[in-house]
Amino acid sequence: MRKVAIVAAGESKFGDRVGKEYEELISEAYLEAMSSVNNIEPKDIQEAFWGSLAFGGSQLGNMSALLVDGINIMGIPTSRIENACASSGYALRYAFFSIAAGINDIVIAGGAEKMQDISRATRLYWFGVGGDIKWERLSGMTFPGNYALMASRHMHEFGTKKEDLAQVAVKNHKFASNNPKAQFQKAITLEQAMKAPMVAYPLNIFDCCPLTDGASCVILCPAEDAKKYTDTPIEIIGAGAGSDHLALYQRESLTRIEGAVKASKMAFDMAKMTPNDINVAEVHDCFTIAEILAYEDVGFCKKGEGGKFISEGLSDIGGKVPINSGGGLKAKGHPIGATGTAQVYEIFHQLRGEHINQVDGAETALTHNVGGTGSSCTVHIFKRMR
Amino acid sequence: MRKVAIVAAGESKFGDRVGKEYEELISEAYLEAMSSVNNIEPKDIQEAFWGSLAFGGSQLGNMSALLVDGINIMGIPTSRIENACASSGYALRYAFFSIAAGINDIVIAGGAEKMQDISRATRLYWFGVGGDIKWERLSGMTFPGNYALMASRHMHEFGTKKEDLAQVAVKNHKFASNNPKAQFQKAITLEQAMKAPMVAYPLNIFDCCPLTDGASCVILCPAEDAKKYTDTPIEIIGAGAGSDHLALYQRESLTRIEGAVKASKMAFDMAKMTPNDINVAEVHDCFTIAEILAYEDVGFCKKGEGGKFISEGLSDIGGKVPINSGGGLKAKGHPIGATGTAQVYEIFHQLRGEHINQVDGAETALTHNVGGTGSSCTVHIFKRMR
């Protein structure tokens, strides 16, 4: 198995991009990635892997050709991978496989989503797709409602407080406040986070990620070739993934995302590392409770101690593992299919020492990308190449 | 790169399966595959790759967890791959990567589709997804309309006759007539095929594949381990894929599917073979003209000679390369996301010498799976392991 590196990353501006087509959003990401890399021409890219839920826009499916066409690399193998919010995490996984196998030498993995251009009725429909439609959506359950159940149960079992949830929002808005790509470039106070309008108890509007248009991508190659393309590549040293029952009622626990636990173990085993070895991470904070679950599922803290982890500042810069330093899904935004590789975009810049909210001396990193309410998950571990 | 083999294949009954959930359809396929293999338990399967357009059923997306749950292998990495009608062709491609890379030792690739349980309005919507929505579907173009344009142009450029198209339907209905899994288990005459009600000139109802519920799957492992699991594994010796513009108006030619030409070349180069080396094949006959284009794009005959190829019996048993011996999409049926691995199901049995319409001495085979009107394509080449 060949070692695999990432040599470039790009991301569009996130937010309300109504009027921009999928092709234009992915072009923004692609052009940024290509502008920073040496000795790679468009014709050198051999395969493209795209994550998308096809939430909005005009092409609600079979869009992979549209994306390669949009960046003028038509003709190569390409496919859409759809695992709800973990779509481009899986696109990255398959891109990694193709380089590791020796099938390809240079590939692109990314994602694109348009969410702002569709009616409220259609939004509800597509959000339902993140969870189980038959037993949850058609019974009136909403997506925030699902995560509200997890949050309530976490508060009940472990004494997690509403303030702990709010602190996640405060931290991630702070990180987004100086990120020019972020949807919300504005810090909020704990009081604002606590007193915002309720969505589904205990989650208020500041506990929920926004609807976001955006795209992201990364360029991969064999690690042995990486220095030809950039002075500071990053290596993928662990790749894990897992799944769990689609519907919440079938799961063993509401306070653990089993697929994330499995994905983390697989990635750490491959990397021969433990959570203590990670310097910086991006985790899936579609709701504030999701970030707290992630701390525990990945193993940054023990089960039940996620609330303490955020409130003691352990996921802030200067803490044990700074998390979501680009603003996270919560404040940078969550263009569903683009989120997995948008997480890698942050990690890429952290490990190169060039991030807007740089973590000093970051040498290792982790991304954690969850689909739906936890039915799928990918975890990747990275290190800076020397 | 490790060599990769297929050790089992399964397929549900195709046709009108209203009342059966995705989980039940994939179970039928899975149980057939597992019943023929030795020394593989459900817990041995390490990853699952599923093709689906999510055309019908209740879960119109994020369904990968539902499928692993349905066959009781929950917890493993799994994703949905969507490339319209080439979805499970790409699922097979990524499964192949994962074994070739040494990431996994036993995986399942398959697909499932439900198409019979939805309204006519919704059907039109989803069929539109196969082509370009903005410039084709929203201008009133239908999917048969797209292929009718290709057929008309082929007739104009090369003198292909309506009888040539009809002969494809006659051949594939003949092959389906003794296939217990097929949607249409009935032979038709040339006269019936010629005189059926028109859909979009020159394509009548017998030139069009049906709407089909169904599922299929294959089990893959490293070739070096394959004999542990079955006496007669088949090896994947070539894997190619390609793409072309989504909308017909953008393409260089209406009579060539460029993605299929590229996919074929890539697969033949990997296999170190030419089209003359192939003993039996399954090609993507969503419409009769598509099978004629496939003869030419894969290279079984020269450009423009596809009409002659069918009418001279060269794709029938006893001809140069027997094609679609299980009945093809045309008569076995076309459950969109399941079709790619359903083609491999036929090839698997042909190369083991146990097919219902056995081609004597078949040692090598090819599958050709097209997405939409040709925006994506995968081609795989197989040989019987000795």
Overview of this protein structure:
Two copies of one chain form a homodimer. With 386 residues, chain A is of the alpha/beta class. Chain A has twelve helices and eleven strands. Chain A folds into two domains: 4-118 and 212-234, Thiolase/Chalcone synthase (Peroxisomal Thiolase, Chain A, domain 1, 3-Layer(aba) Sandwich), CATH 3.40.47.10; 140-209 and 237-384, Thiolase/Chalcone synthase (Peroxisomal Thiolase, Chain A, domain 1). In chain A, 34% of the residues lie in helices and 18% in strands. Chain A starts with a strand and ends with a strand. The interface between A and B is large, with 63 and 63 residues.
CATH superfamily of the largest domain in chain A: Thiolase/Chalcone synthase
Assembly of the depicted chains: homodimer
What structural class is derived from the secondary structure elements of chain A? Answer: alpha/beta
What is the overall shape of chain A? globular
Largest interface: A-B, 63 and 63 residues
What is the number of domains of chain A?
A: 2
Q: Summarize the amount of helix of chain A as a percent range.
A: 25-40%
Q: Can you identify the CATH class of the largest domain in chain A? A: Alpha Beta
Termini separation of chain A comes to: 20 Å
Overview features:
alpha/beta, Peroxisomal Thiolase, Chain A, domain 1, 11 strands, globular, 2 domains, 34% helix, 12 helices, 386 residues, homodimer
